[in-house]
Amino acid sequence: MDAAPDPTSAPDLDPALDLDLAQVRAFAVTAETLHFGQAAARLGISQQALSKRVARLESVLGARLFDRDGGARRTRLTDAGERFAPAAREALAAGERAVAAVRGERQALRLDVWGHLYAPMRTVAHAAEAAAAASPALRLEPGPGRDWPSVAEALLSGAADAGFGRVHPLPDGRDRGLAHRLVRLEPVDAVVSAAHPLAGAAELRPADLRDSVLWAPAELPRLDFLRRFADEFGITRRQSGPNLGPDHLAQHLRADPRSFTLVPADAPLPSGAGLRSVPLTRPTPLYAWSLAWRDTPRHPLLDALLAAFGAAARSRRWLDHVPGRDWLPDADHAQLAPPADGAEKKF
Question: How far apart are the first and last CA of the chain?
Fold first, then answer.
């Protein structure tokens, strides 16, 4: 008969399972920046100390995680590094949650928000109120994102837990590994100078704007919604300039009575007089706001945030849509109906 195991003896452990989170963090920050100097500065340590931590981690794992091309001064993840990166971010997040649990702290969910000329924080604020009432453990940390491509990159790298704005397919599969859910459809108005020929109209059809100039506060290829609107309704005269904020946008519209842009119907107009917001009808364009997140690892409080947005959407009728009355870009139609299996939308 085999002898019973001695409960006091230590089991043989694979040393790769005994990871040092300081080393894992050194890897994760370097993987995000792909630059040892920048990663060391972010961590507040010397580049030599950072290199030692990464080297020790590589020794424990028995695999090289970075390719360092000294001549070209480039750093790249190896195949092993690419495979390790998502699990490394998950390990760091789990460590942060463990510390928060011991200290009795609420867990934070980092939400990158973009589309700031359309005042997205109005929607986030309503959802945050619902989240605070239903999920006291959720501490939402909204922060600015530049645009959807940059937020997608932040989600995939682990720099953000979720994103809020308008999503659309990105080229070259750059959004692979992300999921998203439509949370609000918001009507938009045409904003024009008080001197615009159509400023006195009670309402306008999108086609009425064909002789006007669409002003885009960024390069139009980056503004997917405005570009698709212009293509759909035959707006051929288009201008764009840098996004210098709502006051700069208002200044341009006031100075050029031929121009217009689109702004959500209940968003506050930029400061100062001389602008008019005219409702668009037959059809009414809708701006689609969505939540996006990394498919895996999934933040443990993401479901609470999704539930909060869902509750706000139901109480405020955020997802009302009538075909024929309303217009959405083709890329947004797929978000209207959930998948047959009930899963989230994937890119």
Answer: 57
